[in-house]
Each structure stands twice: as C-alpha cells, then as structure tokens.
Write a structure and sequence with these properties.
The protein is of the alpha/beta class. It folds into three domains: about 5-85, Arc Repressor Mutant, subunit A; about 95-165 and about 270-295, D-Maltodextrin-Binding Protein, domain 2, CATH 3.40.190.10; about 165-265, D-Maltodextrin-Binding Protein, domain 2 (3-Layer(aba) Sandwich). The protein has helices spanning about 5-15, 20-25, 30-45, 60-85, 100-115, 130-140, 170-175, 200-210, 225-235, 245-250, 280-295; strands spanning about 50, 55-60, 95-100, 120-125, 145-150, 155-165, 165-170, 190-195, 220, 240, 255-260, 265-275. Strands 4-3-5-12-6 form a five-stranded mixed β-sheet, sandwiched between helices. It has a five-stranded mixed β-sheet with strand order 9-8-10-7-11, with helices on both faces. Helix 1 crosses helix 3 and helix 1 (about 5-15) crosses helix 4 (about 60-85).
Length: about 300
C-alpha cells in the first residue's frame, strides 16, 4: 500500500531543495526526513535526489516523479477543500424522484424556500410514478424519493412527512345533473375519473373499493391528477383526488367534496432512501429540512 506521507516528504524536500526547510515545514526532524527519503528510494529502487553541499537536487527520475506527485497532492488538496464546502453547504447535489402531482402541489413550494436557504445546491428532479421512482432509487439513479407511502420493503426506509386524504370531487352542475344528494350516494349513478391502474394512489382507492364491496368502472383514466381536477371543474364527472391539493377549488366553490361512508382512510407521504446506503450530506440536509418544516 502506498504511504502517502513518504510522498509528502518527497514533495516538500523537492519543493524547498533543503532538508532543513522541509523539516521545518513538516514539523519533523531532519534525521526522520532523511530516513523517509531513503525509504522511498529503496521502495522505488531508484535514486530521487543528488545530495550536494548546496542542498537536495532532484535527479532526472526524481523530476519525473515530482511532476506526478505534485498533481496528485493538488488533487488531494482540492478534494479536501471540496469536502469542506460540502460540510458547510457551499456545494452539493441532490437527485430527487417524485411524481408529477407531488412535485407540483407539495415539493415546489418547499423547494422554493429550500433553494433560498441553500442556494449552492444543485437539484435534479425526475418525475415518475411512485413505483417507477422506487425502481430508480434501487438502481441508484436518484438519491431520495418523495412519494406516498409504498408497500413495506426491507431495502429502504420511509420517513413520514405528512398525511393526505383521498376524496371524491365534482362541480355543482354535474351533481345537479345526476340528481345527487348526500343520502343517495354517488357510486351507482356517477361517472368516475380515476388515475391509471399502475398508479399507487389508484391502487389505494381500489383497495378501499374492494374492502367495502364497491363496484366502480372509470369512464376516464389519466396518469396526471391535475387532468382529473381540470375535468372535474368542467363537469365531466367525479374525480378521486387528494383533498389537500384542491383546497383552493373547494374553498371558492369550483369543486364540491362528495362525502362517502365510511371515509377513505388518510395515508402518508414521505421520503424514501435506501436502508444500507448512507445518504449524502446534501440529501440528508434536504430530508431534515422537509421534515422540520412539516413538524
């Protein structure tokens, strides 16, 4: 194994041309310095210095080695400097996997404040479904995922950030058309709009349907919840969406929440990272920031 200290001694002796000056710079004795040079020359089986009355002078072979050692030590210094920047949040990169819906309605508002706090971080965002995002995490293409709580898996940890509520919504005109009233229920008469079947939110609502023996065949399916929200706003039917993401429409009356019995249980969204791989400082900083702002 390479002894880096030997090369640091070699570098300083070559740079100063003097054992005494190098010893002073390295805070070690001249005899110890001489032993280190002799050890390196023995190991490499080549003479690196000519010892002259005026000091230490590099041989031709020593000059060749010095060129590479100087570059190597410069890279080490650069690497150590980069680590200091990482520790002080002056550098860093984060690759985040997130669904389009969570990205727009949850991540972006948080990201705006995070970037103002940590302006030097480079952030890459990849929009995929929750299940696709988890696959990217497993393959190392993202550092963390912001997702609704997935099925338990021994390879990753889920850190809860907040809870969300799935609800059915429609506009008033559509509800009038199907003569809806709270006591009648909507499942027999409504036209439903759901996310596509491979979406984890769709799978969650299908689980609710199955548990309560509800038969629903969607007339419209989309991979984007915002499409369902827009369709509901123009009276195309009843959409299953996340309540927290349509709070404005529910407040101003563009959409109405349709109560169901029993209520759809709330679920969690959070950050997922691989269990046996330590997150980078930047990724951990982001996780802590999101968790703390939601506490």
């Amino acid at each position: 194994m390479t002894d880096l200290n030997l090369y640091r001694v070699f570098y300083d002796v070559a740079r100063t041309g003097s054992l005494s000056k190098a010893a002073e710079a390295l805070y070690i004795s001249q005899p110890a310095l001489s032993k280190s040079i002799a050890k390196l020359e023995k190991r490499l089986d080549i003479v690196l210095f000519d010892r002259t009355p005026h000091g230490m002078s590099l041989t031709h072979e020593g000059n060749v080695l010095f060129t590479y050692v100087e570059k190597a030590l410069d890279w080490i210094d650069t690497g150590e400097g980069m680590l200091e920047k990482l520790k002080h949040h002056d550098e860093g990169s984060i690759r985040i996997g997130v669904s389009t819906t969570l990205c727009k309605h949850y991540l972006l508002p948080k990201l705006d404040l995070f970037k103002k706090t940590y302006p030097n971080y480079k952030i890459q965002i990849i929009n995929k479904t929750t299940l696709e995002t988890l696959q990217l995490l497993q393959k190392g293409f993202v550092d963390i995922c912001l997702v609704s709580e997935p099925p338990k898996d021994e390879t990753y940890d889920f850190i809860k950030i907040t809870s969300i509520h799935d609800v059915f919504v429609a506009n008033q005109i559509y509800l009038n058309q199907i003569q809806y009233s709270p006591g009648n229920g909507v499942f027999p008469s409504g036209s439903f709009m759901l996310l596509e079947s491979d979406n984890i939110s769709r799978q969650y609502i299908e689980q609710y349907f199955g548990q309560h023996h509800i038969q629903v065949t969607p007339d419209i399916q989309s991979g984007d919840m915002d499409v369902l929200i827009s369709l509901a706003e123009i009276g195309m039917g009843i959409a299953c969406v996340i309540k927290e993401f349509v709070s404005v429409q529910l407040t101003d009356g563009r959409l109405l929440e349709i109560k169901v019995d029993p209520d759809i249980p709330k679920r969690n969204i959070g950050i997922v990272h691989l269990k046996n791989i330590r997150s980078s400082l930047a990724a951990q900083t982001f996780t802590d920031y999101i968790r703390d702002t939601c506490a």
